[in-house]
């Protein structure tokens, strides 16, 4: 479970986050929508301990991440539109590297399973720089879940993917969701975001301005709400 | 603690594997180091006697230029697919990232220097065999000093627009104590002087290494964390 | 309180500077060996001391910024660095003017000259880095890292160039005795505080200026939002 309370982040005179309160239950899939500059990435980076907040608290399973973030980091997997993978290492070498950083037990076997799961078993020994965008994104997912994290954070994972790759990503996320992982995703992609998540929020100018269960919204109704809210924020 | 160092070496090994595989960096650093020696040769009279006096200076200019070329690429690797964020997400303490990068850069620079050394002896017609053991001490100490600050500034410069232009501006003035000490002690060693003549330079190098290793080790976390 | 000091300081410093000028040019005896050119020494030493002091202020500001992450420490650091560079340039100009007639050369690789030259280079790089970064917190953070490392390097640079070669006139002789005429010492004792207070005035003004820049940026943003 993730609890965010009164989270505030300033970059000098610019306030990226202005008091975010969120509670994400274990096994819940939350999607954060919002225009560019809403501070969505900043929020995820704070949750993943990459950035320290100016004020406010984040608790992950009861651990305050500012005090014990090495423990927190083991529970978190991050997928962004950047891969965090080395082009001049093979898919397997990349996973070996990150797996060892997390002390994953029985690593070789885990990598084999993961590569099969994301459909890259046949490319295990190829250099990552030869991969297409879609393949890279699938390997990114394997990298992010190699240590079997309870929480998965996704920052604009659909950016730069074609429809086919986006479909695959959606299916993989659905599968992760059924495995009782807590998932937080930011995206612009209303159709995909609405389809796979349990709950949706809209973040504008560093604040949460709308919150609802995904099942209460259709793509049309949510698009209407979204543009209305973004219009107000301007 | 054992886990910490295991991961530190993991990062260093990863860097070395990538660099030795692509060879781009090793070739360009190697050629650069040799070119500096050759170009400097043309600046002096062929076969002049004083060449022995300026040779240590040329050696260290070649080493330091080549090493800074390598340093400028060190964190580019981590930036391309935002791998730095990947490292920061791992349970390894941030200082471990610095330590891993330092070890990788140090080994890499040492390899380049050890390959350049015989060429240096040939170009300047010097016999280095007897001077080799003390010379190795100087090379290790000076290279380590150069790499400690260099790695920190390399991480800094990738975060700046036009950072590869700025890195030498930061590095070279910082390295003045290292350059002076290395050149002086190399000169004394090649002239066959005893350790008491250059021990003060070694002490200075050791002081530099310790001060900047500790300072960079502590500061690195503040540098990369927003 | 702070404002009061700011108003009072120039009135304290002005008579002090006039006194220092009087002492430097009239009261202090002409050096028997170097002649009138030696009088540049009082300014040279004062500016060198203040140049060093300003880099120390930069060092303190840098450390405090990394710990506290407060803008005011960054303001102190940047203001001190800028003034430090200006004073270093004065030191590097007055040095050769003095050296030319006395040593017969504009430039010598004397340890103190080398140290000041390298300092100037380091803080010039510091300013270059600042100018290359738009984002305020990142600029402050990166600059602080350089400020700390650069200052730690000062003693080592000095030591290295000192061991390397030295021909600078040592005014403070071994054993702590001044190798100067008492009137010369007295002049120096007035000139140094006069210039130091001058530095404090400059520093406070420069910090105000930086604060005003922030305020302008803030107001601009507000206007843009309203428009």
What does this structure look like?
The complex is a heterotrimer of chains A (234), B (226) and C (227). Chain A has 234 residues and is of the alpha/beta class. Chain A has a domain at 1-73 and 184-234: P-loop containing nucleotide triphosphate hydrolases (Rossmann fold), CATH 3.40.50.300. Chain A contains eight helices and ten strands. With 226 residues, chain B is mainly α. In chain B, α2 (24-42) crosses α6 (94-123), α3 (51-74) packs antiparallel against α6 and α3 (51-74) runs parallel beside α7 (132-157). Chain B starts with a helix and ends with a helix. Chain C is mainly α and 227 residues long. Chain C is 81% helix and 0% strand. Chain C has helices at 2-27, 40-68, 71-103, 111-132, 136-164, 182-226. Chain C is globular, with a radius of gyration of 20 Å. The two termini of chain C are 39 Å apart. Mean pLDDT of chain C is 87; it is low at 172-178. Chains in contact: A-B, A-C, B-C. At the B-C interface, α7, α8, α9 and α10 of B face α4 and α5 of C.
Which pair of chains forms the biggest interface, and how many residues does each contribute?
Answer: B-C, 33 and 30 residues
- Beta-strand share of residues of chain A: 25-35%
CATH class of one domain in chain A: Alpha Beta
Total number of domains of chain B? 1
Fraction of residues in β-strands of chain B: under 5%
Q: Largest sheet of chain A, order of strands side by side? A: 6-7-8-3-9-10
Order of helices and strands of chain A: EEEHEEHEHHHEHEHEEH
Low-confidence stretches of chain A: none
Number of strands of chain A: 10
| Major β-sheet annotation of chain A | 6 strands, mixed
Looking at CATH, the homologous superfamily of one domain in chain A is P-loop containing nucleotide triphosphate hydrolases
